[in-house]
Amino acid sequence: MRNIIEFDAMDPAFQRDPIPMFERLHAADAMLLDPAIDAYFLGRHEDVAQALRSDVFTTAPLAESAQPMMGDRVLAQMEGQEHKAKRGLVLSAFSGRSNRERHAQIIARVTSALLAESLRRGRLDLINDFGKAYSMLVTLEALGLPTDRYLDVIAWHSGVATFVTSLRLTEAQRLHSVACSQAFIAYLTPLVEDLRGSSRDGLIPLLCNPAAGGGMTTPETVALVLNVVLAAAEPSDKALAYLFHHLVSCPTLLDRVRNDRHLLAPAIAETLRISSPVQLIPRQINDDATVGGVRLAAGTRVFCMPGAANRDPSVFRDPTTFDINRRKAAQQAPIGGAASMHFAFGTGTHMCVGAAFSLMQLELTANILLDHLRDLRTPPGFMLEEEGFYTRGPVAMPLEFAPYDGAVPLGPRT
After folding, report:
1. What is the DSSP string of 44-108?
2. What is this structure's pTM?
3. Neighbouring residues of 182: CB distance < 8 A, sequence distance ≥ 6
4. Separate counts of helices (H) and strands (E) for the chain
5. Which of 176, 175, 106 minimizes the C-alpha distance to 145?
């Protein structure tokens, strides 16, 4: 039976660096309990898999955290046939060869525009000079939305994300988040109305079209679009920065990946395992359940911790080591490759609907960067600093490289 370790999720030491607590949890074969909020935090790979794959663990907490910001239910709150149908519409708008080609063009165009000046300088902060704008511009264009007010959208997005990903909010923070939500919804509503009944390709016309299985009202569509924007834009810049942190920290590995791009996909997978941008996934138990031998009553709230599960030593050998050969080795091990999958995108019915798009986006963008950032390094004395609780990422990821003075004919590898 799992041991129970009481802790304070808001402890500044844990917020600053959760890894020591993850290691303590695994060493003690435990789950965490925060008495102040009466919630359990699951970090064993087996426990997280059970909570995310079982129908007993519901997405009810999102009614409190996400729905007030979105104006209506989000995809993760839907169940059964409704969830299957709406999830299918989102997947169809982000998958398929024609969509991949369109998205590749968007990614190349956005990357080219944002990189041009930095390439000439020979300096780039992947988070603050590039990533925040990049992730939002790509997301908006992929959704068929205008980008002229993307800076406003980034600001609104930040306020909404603060509400959704905070366990405790000050009144000032709550009011700011509500104002951001109202402004975001007011901005999206006429855009959705204009696209209703449109013959254009894209997610919004699909969601509004009864013949395609949609037929959603404008508030429902706006909520789902907000849901997609939040899910797509929030972690992508963090994952990209983490990837280059790991590669630049090992010049030999960087050279291997630069010279053999088949190694990029496993490098991305290992980045998502060891440095998962998503750190908490909330669930609520709708019936009595046993997790790791611990009996939990109906109504109990739990938080799955992908960052801890992805470092479970009972599943991942040498879990603190960045090893791009890990998946190949896992497929040959007795435990099997499927059991060794990371949870950066969750798992089960409510696994992140944008996982395939995110992986494509990371791979295409990383290829473009590797093609043009030569003699790549971090500034002398740079130390990675991270922040975030629900989602986590580098505060900054400065890179130095050989200046590129010519034109910027960037394009994705296919």
Report:
1. SHHHHHHHHH-TTEE-TTHHHHTHHHHSS--GGG--HHHHHHHHHHHHHHH-SHHHHHHHHHHHH
2. 0.91
3. none
4. 17, 12
5. 106
Alpha helix (H) residue ranges in 249-373:
251-259, 264-274, 306-309, 326-332, 355-372
Indicate the CATH number for domain 3-400. 1.10.630.10
Where does residue 281 fall: left (phi above 0), alpha (psi -120 to 50 degrees), or beta otherwise?
A: beta
Query: Residues 6 or more apart from 64 whose CB is under 8 A from it?
Result: none
Q: How far is CA 144 from the centre of its chain?
A: 21
- Give me the sign of the Cα torsion angle 284, 289, 294, 300: positive
Query: What distance in Å separates the CA atoms of residue 9 and residue 18, rounded to the nearest whole number?
Result: 9
Return the structure tokens found at 261: 């791009």
**What's the Cα-to-Cα distance from 209 to each of 141, 282, 344, rounded to whole Å?**
20, 31, 32
Structure tokens at 193: 């109305």
Q: How far is CA 84 from CA 43, 60, 75, 212, 371, in A?
A: 28, 18, 10, 13, 39
Retrieve residue 245's tokens. Answer: 């942190």
Q: Which amino acid is at 193?
A: E
Element (H, E) at 277: none
| Cβ-Cβ contacts under 8 Å for 129 (sequence gap 6 or more) | 114, 118
Among 274, 236, 249, 238, CA closest to 376 = 249
Report, as ranges of residue numbers, the positions in the chain whose pLDDT lies below 70.
211-213, 328-340, 406-414
SS3 303: strand
The SS3 of residue 278 is: strand
HSE-CB of 285 using CA atoms within 13 angstroms? 19
Mapping DSSP to helix (H, G, I), strand (E, B) and coil, where does residue 339 land? helix
Q: What is the pLDDT of residues 170-215, one digit of tens each?
A: 999 999 999 999 999 999 999 999 888 777 777 888 888 776 667 7
Which helix (H) or strand (E) segment holds residue 7: the answer is: none
Nearest to 344 by CA among 303, 310, 394, 302: 310
Give the amino acid at 130: F
User: Domain-by-domain residue ranges, the chain?
Assistant: 3-400
Q: How many CB atoms lie within 10 A of CB 402?
A: 12
Q: Write out the H or E segment, with its range, that includes residue 17.
A: none
Q: And the tokens for 247?
A: 């590669």
> How would you classify the pairing of strands 39-42 and 301-304?
parallel
13 Cβ neighbours under 8 A, 6+ residues apart: none
